[in-house]
Amino acid sequence: MGDRPKIKLELTAFDKALEIMGGVLIFAIWILLGVSYSNLPESIPMHYNAAGEADAFGSKSSILGLPLVATALFIGLSILNQYPHTFNYPDKITEENARYQYRNSTRMLRCLKLVILIIFGMATYLTIRNAHQETAQIGKWFLPLTLGLIFIPVICFLIRAYRGDSKN
Fold first, then answer.
1. In 10 A of CB 120, how many CB atoms?
2. 3-class secondary structure for the chain?
3. Which of 119, 139, 126 is nearest to 70 (CA)?
4. All residues at 6 or more sequence positions from 91 whose CB lies less than 8 Å from its CB, including other chains
5. Can you tell me the distance from the alpha carbon of 97 to that of 31, in angstroms, rounded to the nearest whole number?
6. Has residue 6 been placed in a domain?
7. Are 130 and 58 in contact (CB under 8 A)?
8. How far apart are CA 108 and CA 156, in angstroms?
9. Domain containing 61: what range?
């Protein structure tokens, strides 16, 4: 890892769009919570089983954990994304393949940041709806959707990483 080239990657228009969408989503999650917080009951659902049914409850202030964790992950992944030469790669990084591999891996992290924010935004929204008893659960679809949103992009970017290595 110490002999990997350190390359400054310029953001493409697509990368910038992903970053802007992430910032907008963080802002939207906080706005949603700010608008809804005073109307929440004192006890709200905080955990759901695999069927999407609430199985643990907490005080309404515990909902702050969702946007706080989302914000921390967004910031942490943004910082990590500045050091692509420290990531794990499926093959040796050389001068010839570094730019492609670094761009692919940083874009994967940007997509994952966006997916994480979508998941946390949905969790916040559905918890608020559940707290207002507009629905009794978050739905059986939430867990499979969450897993798909996370693993499908990772698999796609790993395939790109392997294909990129075979070209170089």
1. 22
2. CCCCCCCCCCCCHHHHHHHHHHHHHHHHHHHHHHHHHHHCCCEEEEEECCCCEEEEEEEHHHHHHHHHHHHHHHHHHHHHCCCHHHCCCCCCCCCCCHHHHHHHHHHHHHHHHHHHHHHHHHHHHHHHHHHCCCCCECCCCHHHHHHHHHHHHHHHHHHHHHHHHHHC
3. 119
4. 97, 161, 162, 165
5. 42
6. no
7. no
8. 9
9. 13-167
Name the token pair of 32: 């949603």
Q: Quick check: is 4 in a domain?
A: no
Amino acid at residue number 166: S
Q: How many residues does the chain have?
A: 168
Classify residue 3: in a domain, yes or no. Answer: no
* Interatomic CA distance for residues 4 and 165, integer angstroms: 15
CA angle, corner 143, sides to 84 and 126, nearest 5?
A: 100
Residue range 88-105, pLDDT digits in tens: 988 889 999 999 999 999
Please give the tally of structural domains in the chain: 1
User: Considering the entire predicted model, what is its pTM?
Assistant: 0.85
Residue 2 included in any domain: no
Residue-wise pLDDT for 5-64, tens only, equals 999 899 999 999 999 999 999 999 999 999 999 999 999 988 888 777 788 889 999 999
Tokens at 132, concatenated: 């207002």
